């Protein structure tokens, strides 16, 4: 495949590589808005929100991959994209029951934090809720 028409995408976390694929398109949510990256895009570094990353695979243009990415950053240069994330999970690997339980637990923790007037605990619970909701969304959107 012509290197000028594909992007080599790697997603890594502290636990190791989660995704490595040649893709035709990357859609990610940066902290300042959505990014759409096609081959030969200008170089960019951006911080990522807790959100879904979608790719259009180069080996099968009818196949999109969805990855739940929980923060981190994306770097793109010379048709190579690297996402370094706090955690990431392919839609096919998401345990929906576990994600729903995490959502319920986070919602309960938010209520506790509000009752105790503990803004730090509330913020951590809100991040946990966002991660769980992201995983559920990616699972349902696959």
UniProtKB/TrEMBL annotation:
Keywords from the named record: ATP synthesis, Cell membrane, CF(1), Hydrogen ion transport, Ion transport, Membrane, Transport
Topology class, membrane: Peripheral membrane protein
Pfam family, one: ATP-synt_DE_N
Keyword check for Ribosomal protein: no
Domain of life where this protein originates: Bacteria
Transmembrane segments: none
ATP synthase F1 complex delta/epsilon subunit N-terminal domain ranges (all copies): 8-88
Xref: InterPro entries: ATP_synth_F1_dsu/esu (IPR001469), ATP_synth_F1_dsu/esu_N (IPR020546), ATP_synth_F1_esu_C (IPR020547), ATPsynth_dsu/esu_N (IPR036771)
Residues of the ATP synthase epsilon subunit C-terminal domain: 93-138
Annotated compartments: Cell membrane; Endomembrane system
MF (Gene Ontology): ATP binding; proton-transporting ATP synthase activity, rotational mechanism
GO cellular component terms attached to this protein's record: endomembrane system; plasma membrane; proton-transporting ATP synthase complex
Primary location recorded for the protein, binned into one broad class: membrane
Keyword Magnesium: no
PANTHER family, A to Z: ATP SYNTHASE DELTA/EPSILON CHAIN, ATP SYNTHASE EPSILON CHAIN, CHLOROPLASTIC
Family stated for the protein in its record: Belongs to the ATPase epsilon chain family.
Entry function: Produces ATP from ADP in the presence of a proton gradient across the membrane.
UniProt cross-references to HAMAP family, sorted A to Z: ATP_synth_epsil_bac
Subunit and partners: F-type ATPases have 2 components, CF(1) - the catalytic core - and CF(0) - the membrane proton channel. CF(1) has five subunits: alpha(3), beta(3), gamma(1), delta(1), epsilon(1). CF(0) has three main subunits: a, b and c.
The protein's name in its UniProt record: ATP synthase epsilon chain
């Amino acid at each position: 495949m012509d290197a000028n028409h594909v992007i080599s995408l790697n997603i890594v976390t502290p636990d190791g590589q989660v995704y490595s694929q040649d893709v035709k398109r990357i859609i990610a949510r940066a902290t300042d808005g959505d990014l759409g990256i096609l081959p030969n895009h200008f170089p960019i570094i951006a911080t990522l929100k807790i959100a879904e990353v979608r790719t259009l695979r180069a080996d099968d243009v009818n196949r999109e991959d969805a990855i739940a990415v929980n923060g981190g950053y994306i770097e793109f240069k010379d048709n190579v994209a690297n996402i370094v994330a706090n955690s990431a999970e392919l839609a096919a690997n998401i345990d929906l029951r576990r994600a729903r339980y995490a959502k319920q637990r986070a919602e309960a923790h938010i209520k506790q934090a509000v009752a105790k007037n503990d803004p730090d605990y509330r913020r951590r619970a809100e991040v946990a809720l966002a991660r769980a909701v992201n995983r559920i969304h990616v699972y349902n959107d696959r």
